Known about the structure:
CATH architecture of the largest domain: Sandwich
CATH topology of the largest domain: Jelly Rolls
Strand order of the largest sheet: 1-8-5-10-4-3-2
Number of helices: 16
Structural class: alpha+beta
Strand content: 15-25%
Shape: globular
Largest sheet: 7 strands, antiparallel
Oligomer: single chain
CATH class of the largest domain: Mainly Beta
Bound molecules: fe (ii) ion
Low-confidence stretches: none
Order of helices and strands: HHHHHHHHHHHHHEHEEHHEEEEEEE
Number of domains: 2
Number of strands: 10
Amino acid sequence: MTASSQEDRKLQELIKLYEQRNYAKAIKVGESFTKKYSQNGSGWNLLGLSYKASGEVTQAIEIFKSLTKSAPDSAMFQSNLGNTLVSIGRIKDGISCFKKAIKLEPDMINAIEALGLAYLEINEKEKARNSFEHVIKLDPNHQRSLYFLGNLYLMTQDWINAAKYLKGSNFGLSQSHYLECLLCLGKGKEFLNFYKQLTGRGVTNPLVGGLVAHVQELYKKDIKNTFCNDAMKHVYVGRIEEKDGFSDELAKELIHYHRSNKNDYRSQSLLHNGSQSSGNLFLLNEPFAKTLKSCIEKQIEIYKFNFAESEQGFLKHWPKNYELFGWLISITSGGNLDTHNHKEGWLSGSFYLNLPQAESQGKDDGKIAFSYRGPKYPAGGRVSERRIVDVKTRDICMFPSSLFHETVPFHGQEERISFAFDVKPLN
Ligand SMILES: [Fe+2]
């Protein structure tokens, strides 16, 4: 066997491991491959991607930075560096990489779309729209960009245009969002029929769960919710104490990291008098990230054990592959987070790092309130139940991601700081 064919065979093995999501082994093989064939850019690229996929973001960034230096004409390396930076909340740095990639390769759909997604993170909606429209111009049937364009119309509650794009896409939650459009366009019969179709196709997720819960509660429709009936009964409050490993010192470091603005704040129109971190905080190479992850993983196991007898869809069909996605929200006096649910989650939670408990406050100030009513969905003047859950500093509140929730405004000198997370299914 010649040297080059052996190199190629090894590279194929590495590609296969990466495609099989066997990242631990891909890293092992990738490390020895790049040691032996240090000039092989594809090998380094796969090693970087494997590091990124397994949460070793610092190593991934190092590799992609070095690749962009050694091969300045490669749009792919620039784009991969951009994606990695965005994953840890460095949105503006990511944008600059995507722009460089597009300059090198003007029709590179992945980079154009990634640029649009990065713009969305910082609320540059028009620029995001231009990027997705650019993709559709290059490939009119591009499922992902059709979905993202539909989502932009959902944001402005332009249900007709949203439906137009979403109906033709099978990517992500497109079809579930189409169900949402039917409800919001007042097409009750079509809504019920399409829900039946989706159920037949095995589609269940928090978005559908939230829609059906709204229809059950507001319109008293006797339909079964494939995600979770009685979601309010599936709210669980636990505790993460110092003895569990997450010390006050680590909590301070996490809050300090957030305030130092090392990652960009995410634009969040629902949040008043507050800031939200970008990217996934669990991916940071900081001591607090790893400890918090293991504490929260334990709490999720406790949650599942607690509801082991439950027959609800989200528990029976717990995702085989998922990632934990975490972010920090800090709110100052007078602020709150408006009602929403987490369509891309499965189980959601909040770990309270600091809940101000001033004497002068109303008894529910700063707490979390749950309801079945979707804030953007038609309610026809009907009212719905709202349940406030009592939480204190170091409590962790977990609930099905379909459940709508908000924070009760509070007033006081201290900040209300919570760490939110989702169990996020991976396809
Ligand atoms: Fe939330």
